[in-house]
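Section handout, structural biology tutorial.
Before the tutorial, make sure you can parse a SMILES string by hand: atoms, branches in parentheses, ring closures as digits. In the record below the ligand is zinc ion, and the chain has 73 residues. In the tutorial you will relate the predicted structure tokens back to the input. Do not try to memorize them.
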Amino acid sequence: MSIDLQPYAQLLVCPACRSKLVVDGRSFLCRKDSCRLRYEVKDDIPVMLSDEAKPVAPDEWAAIVQRDLSANS
Ligand SMILES: [Zn+2]
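Predicted structure of the complex:
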């Protein structure tokens, strides 16, 4: 069984730009549109290192953030 990442998204911020995060599957995504870094969760441990994070394409980022906004409203 894997941990619920949602509480972590409320606590953590993007280490690169200090913006809030959104959960996408088993990863976190930065909410800032000029950043868009994805942080993987490995063995239930969020890897919050900007060196390890990979940017998401703008279209994919927009879809994920939009889905999160509508899920939480
Ligand atoms: Zn960021």
